[in-house]
Amino acid sequence: MPEPKQDRAIRTRHTILMAAATVFEERGYQAATISEILTTANVTKGALYFHFRSKEQLALGVLAGQDQSLVVPDRPCKIQELIDTTMLRAYRLQTDPLVRAGVRLTLDQRADGLDRTGPFQHWNAVTNELLDKAQEQGELLPHVNPAETAEVLVGAFAGVQAMSQATTNYQNLPTSVSALLRHTLPSIVHSSVLASLDLTPQRGHAVHTETATAAAPDEATTEASDN
User: Fold this and answer.
1) Architecture of domain 5-64
2) Measured at the alpha carbon of residue 112, what is the angle toward residues 107 and 113, in degrees to the nearest 5?
3) In this model, does residue 225 exceed pLDDT 70?
4) What is the pLDDT of residue 70?
5) What residue spans define the domains of the chain?
6) What is the pLDDT of residue 222?
7) What dihedral angle (degrees, nearest 10) is formed by the CA atoms of 14, 16, 21, 23?
C-alpha cells in the first residue's frame, strides 16, 4: 500500500531536521550551509524549501525539536519529576543528535540573527512549574523562591553540560549532573523528601526506557489502525 502523502511529508520533514541537526552540531550555525544539509538529507531542494524556507527556519526547527522527546511521566513527588526531566535531558544529550545540535545552537554566540532564547525560556518555564507544584505539596524549604531557583538550576545545568561537552564529549554528563543535583537540592528541598529521591547517574537511562516502553503500545495501536 502506498504511503499516505501526509505521512510521507512528516517523514521527509524529520529526515531534513535530523540532517540539519548533524550539520549544525558538526559545523555550527554560521559555517553550516543549505547545500550541505541537502546532501546529508538526500532530498531535493524543493522538498527542503517546502518545509523550511531558510537556514534560520531550519535552526529554529532544531531548537524546537530538541524538547519534544523530553517528556517525563507525571510523578507524585514533583522534585523527583524535576530530577527525571533533568537526567533524561543529560541522557538525550549523549544519545540524540537533535538534542545535541539544539544545545549547540542555543550556546552558539556566533549565530548572528538567530533567536536562541526559546530553549532557555522553555526549560526555565518547565523547571519553574515543577518547583511551583513542589512548593504547593510542601516539598520545598520555606525560603525558596521557585522562579529564582529555576533560573539558577537552568544556568547551572547549561554550564555543566558545556564543560562536559568540551572535556569528555558528554561521556561524564550523567555523573556530573547527578553531582550538581546532589549539591544543590539539599539547599531547597526538605530532608524528608531528599531521602526518597533517586539521584543516581543511571536515572536518565531508566526514565528513557520507561518512556520508550510506554510509547510502544501507542505506536503499535496507530500502526494497526493505519493498516
Assistant:
1) Orthogonal Bundle (1.10)
2) 110
3) no
4) 62
5) 5-64, 78-226
6) 42
7) 160
